[in-house]
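Exam prep: given the inputs below (a chain plus flavin-adenine dinucleotide), describe the expected output before reading on.
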Amino acid sequence: MDRTEKFIDVLVQTFPSATYVIEGQERRPYEADWRGLVDRPAVAVLLPASTAEVAAMVKLCREFGIAIVPQGGRTGLVAGAVPVGAVPQVIVSTQRMNKIRSIDPINNTMEIDGGVILQVAQEAAAAIDRLFPLSLASEGSCHIGGTIATNAGGIQVLSYGSMRQQVLGLEVVLPDGQIWNGLRGLRKDNTGLDLKQLFIGSEGMFGIITAATVRLLPRPKSALTMLAAIDSAGQALKAFTKIQNLCGADLTSCEYFTAGGLEMVLDHLPDSTAPFRERHPAYVLLEVTSLDSSTDFFGRLEPVLAELLETGTIADMVVAQSEVQRLALWKLREGISEAERAAGGAIKHDIAVPISGIPDVIDKISQWLHGILPSCKLNVFGHLGDGNLHVNIAPPAGTSLSSFYSQGKRVTAYVEQAAIEAGGTFSAEHGIGQLRVESLEKYRAPVELELMRTIKDAIDPTWMMNPGKVLSLAR
Ligand code: FAD
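Solution:
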């Protein structure tokens, strides 16, 4: 009996009533990433139901030298939640840890299990007339633990910040099986190092997040959502600046997409409707919200919108007149990743630059691409208000994504370098996972990489927690 067989044997004896090993076909979905790029076998998939069970399973893995891949909703886009090759590993999914533990409407906090689906957390907050502001297109599937581990961003960072800003406390099972209970619902706590920050955005490399205390905010009572047709990203930026100057923090979202992205949604997602009669080069989706139900946003914005239309900054625009229309407009932007996957996929990037640099970086990349791969489809979309763009490049018609990947390294190197030269980053909100490890080594200074390795060594001396993610195993 080899080490992994022995491990399974002991696992079955130790956890007779837990759901721990999923055989054959049932195991397959846990092993493949959302994009279908990485699909490697795990020794087993473990589905603990409590923090104590996670801790016991981690201890057992450690005893047998089996590495662990923490897994949430499997919507990550850099293959962080699925195994790498090299070492035997189990997937530990938080899927069964899905309880809202408590809500405190006075303290405006919620204590929730790591496996709670983001949308369920939003609904729990809404049920007591509060807002849990993290919002992303994958919110119907991603878990709170996953969004913390990736420091997820999404469509409302402009007003509310990313996941890091929402987290007040954490409960984590450490690589040695100890449970760290840091579930404090405090806005102020300067008692030594703020340890939760280590785990937020660490992509499962320091432990398994089993619960969190998150902040809740007052719930907006009115909203205005509008979609403007524009000629270029430069025009989008002009419109954004004018509206932000007027509305300040009330401008909660500013999203950008192009004609190509819209066409993919209209072609691949049922019940999506073209917003304008004519095709325009690009679009910007803006949403303003207020705590005051009587806010007359349209009255406030009308002079600015009229000016933007008169000066040709905006070619056309629609304003949602109902919640149904609002959701229909959002679907056109939020459906792009799903539609792109249905259309065959693309080489994806997740860059951010200072927002003033957005038009130049888009021009630079599209000119370069046009020069070397003119028949490829460039699909740029993203969170314009945060300077975060998804620069996705699909193969020409008739070429499969897998064969196009032979060009992938060159394309990615150019896109990432363009972002860096513009004062930006090659990964804004998706993280590193196993797909961006080389880029991290290329763009972060040796002293930064060494610091990361030193912290990893201290918390996880045998590198058993999500090996091969973020930091290369080759040292
Ligand atoms: P998983 O994919 O399961 O895991 C992601 C990483 O976190 C892995 O490294 C994993 O090991 C680790 N992890 C998961 N759970 C835990 C845990 N409990 N403890 C420790 N580590 C853990 N991201 C954005 O930021 N903004 C967006 O706007 C956005 N839009 C998206 C739209 C679509 C259609 C899709 C498919 C994805 C999108 N994403 C976006 C990416 C993804 O949804 C986020 O990264 C999300 O936070 C991942 O959560 P998850 O639960 O699915 O994590």
